[in-house]
Design goal:
heterodimer, A: mainly alpha, two-stranded antiparallel sheet, 7 helices, 3 strands, extended, B: 2 domains, two-stranded antiparallel ribbon, 8 helices, 2 strands
């Protein structure tokens, strides 16, 4: 296998290390509502850019040689990490599993679970996020879809029909 | 500067152009074998069809280029990237909690917070969703019911649970879920 592949892999590993370090440091002092996926994407892109420029300046690795290999590989690693991050942060199943790990003798009744992990909490922070991102608006204590939210809902309903899925969620 | 359309660039381009194959194959399988109720199995199969088609087309159109390693890494990374992206979109449509709330409000809203809880999933309520999620992890052998108590079913489940807690603590993500 020629050197280009190894150069591309090395660039991806270096970018990933820089990205994860910056992500870890920033996440120590950012407030929870600011810890969004778009900031992660921004950190990832800056990390990759810095490593590509750095490798060009210090190691004489011209971007044209590795860009079409290191770029897709880095995007794949990033997509994998985002799956992991969102999965762990938002997953209801993983939260239930975590509560069972923390519980005495690793067991809970349904009522215990409801007290530790209330339905209102599950819904509230999702709705707040959708209000923040302008999918929903609050009016007189009730939530309504914005145009953006309506379009996304229509698209999701259309996709459900395509797949032939009756009930989702 | 001229860019030659061959090698890794062509592999990435072909993988990008062939992306629609994954959802098309997936939708076809879901509709054709509706009775099998295996949406995620069909998703993997759809992505496999996409990957194999890319490999065939790439070998046919891109064989003159000598940098085989770069071509394979670039093309397969692109295929896997789009495959994972598509899996996320499908998962959102099929199981997405927030998207379901949005659809419920769109179809039957406006809703207050309490109404969202009781009307979730076309009137089934959040209770139904939680039971569905628990059934999901139960069928994966991670939890089990002992009379009225839900409990950890295996060391693997304990490990997953601890890893989730550790990840959230390290990145200060709060309770999550």
């Amino acid at each position: 296998m020629e050197n280009t592949v190894f150069d591309a892999i090395a660039i991806c590993i270096a970018s990933e290390v820089l990205f994860l370090s910056a992500h870890f440091i920033l996440w120590q002092w950012l407030t929870p509502e600011k810890k969004g996926v778009f900031i992660i994407l921004g950190i990832a892109m800056v990390s990759y850019g810095l490593i590509v420029v750095g490798s060009f300046i210090f190691l004489d690795l011209t971007p044209q040689v590795h860009l079409w290999t290191s770029g897709p590989l880095y995007m794949l690693l990033l997509m994998g990490y985002l799956h992991l991050y969102v999965g762990i942060e938002r997953s209801v199943s993983l939260r239930v599993l975590g509560e069972l790990v923390l519980a005495e003798e690793n067991q809970l009744t349904q009522e215990d679970l409801r007290q530790i992990y209330p339905y209102e909490y599950m819904i509230r922070h999702r709705i707040e996020l959708m209000v923040e991102t302008n999918w929903l608006i609050e009016k007189d204590g009730k939530y309504i879809c914005t145009n953006k939210g309506e379009n996304l809902s229509r698209m999701a309903i259309f996709l459900k029909k395509c797949y032939g899925i009756e009930l989702t969620g | 500067m001229t860019i030659e359309l061959q090698g890794p660039l062509l592999s990435v381009l072909l993988a990008t152009l062939l992306v629609p194959l994954a959802p098309l194959a997936h939708i076809f399988l879901m509709r054709r074998f509706k009775h099998k109720q295996d949406p995620f199995g069909f998703l993997i199969f759809g992505c496999l069809i996409y990957a194999l088609t890319w490999l065939g087309v790439d070998l046919f159109l891109n064989s003159s280029s000598p940098d085989l390693g770069s071509k394979i890494v670039a093309g397969l990374s692109t295929v896997a990237f789009f495959g994972l992206g598509y899996a996320e979109v499908f998962s959102m449509v099929c199981r997405g909690f927030s998207l379901r709330i949005l659809i419920d409000i769109f179809l039957n809203g406006p809703f207050s917070m309490d109404m969202v809880v009781s009307n979730y999933g076309e009137g089934r309520g959040v209770d139904w969703m939680l039971k569905k999620r628990i059934s999901g992890i139960e069928s994966m052998g991670l939890v089990k019911w002992k009379n009225t108590h839900l409990t950890i079913a295996s060391n693997r489940a304990l490990l997953f649970g601890k890893l989730g807690i550790w990840f959230k603590r390290v990145l200060k993500l709060g309770l999550g879920g």
